[in-house]
Here is the input.
Amino acid sequence: MFTKETYIQRRAQLKKLVGSGLVILLGNNDAPKNYPANVYKFRQDSSFLYYIGLQRESLAAVIDIDNDQEYLLGNEIDIDDIVWFGYVPSIKEYAESVGIAHSAPSADLKKLVDAAKAKRQEIHFLPPYRYEHNILLADLLGFHPLEAREKASVKLIKAVVQMRSIKSAEEVEKIERALEIGYKMHTTAMKACRSGVTEQYIAGLLEGVANSYGSTSFPTILSMHGEIQHGYPSTRPLEEGRLMLCDAGAETNSNYCSDNTRVTPISGKFTQRQLEIYQIVEACHDLVIEKAKPGMKWLDMHLDVARLMTDMLKDVGLMKGNTEDAVQAGAHAMFFPHGLGHMMGMDVHDMEGLGQNYVGFDDEVQPSTQFGLNCLRCGRRLQPGFVMTDEPGIYFIPHLIDLWRSEGRHKKFINYDLLETYKDFGGIRLEDDILITETGNRVLGKQIIPYHPKELEEFINE
Amino acid sequence: MFTKETYIQRRAQLKKLVGSGLVILLGNNDAPKNYPANVYKFRQDSSFLYYIGLQRESLAAVIDIDNDQEYLLGNEIDIDDIVWFGYVPSIKEYAESVGIAHSAPSADLKKLVDAAKAKRQEIHFLPPYRYEHNILLADLLGFHPLEAREKASVKLIKAVVQMRSIKSAEEVEKIERALEIGYKMHTTAMKACRSGVTEQYIAGLLEGVANSYGSTSFPTILSMHGEIQHGYPSTRPLEEGRLMLCDAGAETNSNYCSDNTRVTPISGKFTQRQLEIYQIVEACHDLVIEKAKPGMKWLDMHLDVARLMTDMLKDVGLMKGNTEDAVQAGAHAMFFPHGLGHMMGMDVHDMEGLGQNYVGFDDEVQPSTQFGLNCLRCGRRLQPGFVMTDEPGIYFIPHLIDLWRSEGRHKKFINYDLLETYKDFGGIRLEDDILITETGNRVLGKQIIPYHPKELEEFINE
Here is the structure.
């Protein structure tokens, strides 16, 4: 948590940016897993945390901009709650702790909204992603529950994105704390990586580390099938000669995230063929650290990486033809079908739930529809205070190879005969998190998880 | 997964029990955590698993009893899904793998339901606990989304409860596999328990073990404040002289559960005062193993335990008066405010989402409204094949002590002056899982986590 003043200031700025109307910020409820009372680990909504800072479930906040009033809504606990879940402060105490003047029971949300409707105030809410919120908003505002996301307030979304995009020094500190946990997670997985051990076993070790200090920021990707972008750990034992791709992140108890990817040779040493591909990804990863700076379009950074990758894949013989034309046509997306990176903060894909187009794009840079490029989660110009992931990758996806080959797609740029022999390769991605500074960028984290091939081999074999 | 024949047989029996109409079984979707695409670990619905056996998300099954037809509904994947999540079989292949003749896209659910409505077939569904299912059912059947639980089919609920209550030998085997993981989890936590280490750190270790072989069956309870029934791990360091209560369970990859509770002295040795209370709980725990058998009401077992506990608390001086009267009045619930145990299977509180009254009670035994007894999750007569948890506990809950004392509640039976000195004690619960056999019961698990005080102390200090 930050100081009370931080939350007061943030809400004041939000009010200024939105200008008028009534803002509803819904905190999350417990999320049922396999029956109502068996719930997943509670995760507060990130925007609610940013403006209200409270970790208790089933709260809501209302900011009446026109009348300059703030309300915290929630229900008090009774003796049964104390017996089962322990004592927690009253709603009034919670409200005071973050500088909110009024507190009321949850049911009063309807009264506040009805009063605002009667006064024809504009009502702002963010796009919901928990369906009980869809139902609640539908009941309050009179639309079908599944329309709630499209009815969300663009003005509010834009204000939140503007504020949350720029990380304060205190926020960066928390992200670096997440990276510290992430370092332990990844190095534990890398050291435990050996043939015969299951993917799930290694993922468990790494998730145990995360949970000992916080939690994971997203479902662990850990697989010999690194070519599957979100390849969740299976019960398959790791096999000699293959690569283990691990994309995992920590979340601190205050919900700031890390996100890293490393690739470990299961035999303890890269083969020549693996090394050739690995070094291309390494060069692409390092190019971002060398070049990313304020004012640069992230789309251009992505395309610079695509060009370097294409050049180097030509050296290996997997691509051919004119590099600029290949990238223009999107041929490199056979190998690199996703975006170079995304914003990171309290959400690991920061603010993705508010709508990618508002977070990663603007009037100047619009999303593309080209395969691969359409997965870019950010395209707009970088600003100091942005935290971005830097995560190029090269994948050999048998179904995609077969599909494109059968269509003759990009055959001017792709050497399908050689590519055929890589179908058992898997995939490589390297990922670190960078802060855009006034002059360039800084790789976040006190310790960088080893990734230069020699250093990595030494580390896992030491 | 079980054999195709198992699922076919289970559905055949379900059809017989329900008799007529159209049964809708909704499989679970991915559950969003902090934005739509960042999801919690997928958990299939247990009844869907029981009858359909498929682990893929966003499926539904329809059983038209009147026309003896079965349908699996789901959407096929495309190349983007393959790139991001890997290849999965077609809906038709999934259907065939579990003996379902028809497959169709998800949108066809509406057609099937509309056709059934036109033919005035009764439509059966189970109470939903994921709100997108509330919305779906509301749209299909024409009620408010929040009415969906009360509109569920009692006939279907009763049929499912009747079947899932009796565990087959194969199911018991899977529960024992969960207990094997649970043994590793608990012994890891007990061995790591020492002052200065945080509760969260130990919980992380234990959850890591769970995730290495499956997952946890419910949110880990791990706390020095054992008196909070669901005391989640905090970042407090463990303190010399206190007790660590750990209530945690494993879930296998096929979603069968374990549930155990152990209490470890943080200093490595129980104090005399702790031992006195511990031995009461131990005796209560062992009484169940000695006595539970088919035909006995679980409510009576609970009350037998309450009587023994009251007798022994009188020996310590914390209770007084006539034991029978004290238990009748519910005075023991000051110390033991919850039920003795619950059914366990694919849900750790098995089938709780279908409605406790249908699962744990019947015409003969109805739920109580008395404080403590109202938390009993099961009261009815035991049958061979039931799996129950055996989990008595004694707690010293400062807020409850203050409340009851101020009301003069049960002052004939409770020695409040002595009780006052126990406010810093915490709580003790011991929990194992038993199978009701033809003649009595069997404690499940190949290895029993040490709990007899001497054995436990030796184990953690070895």
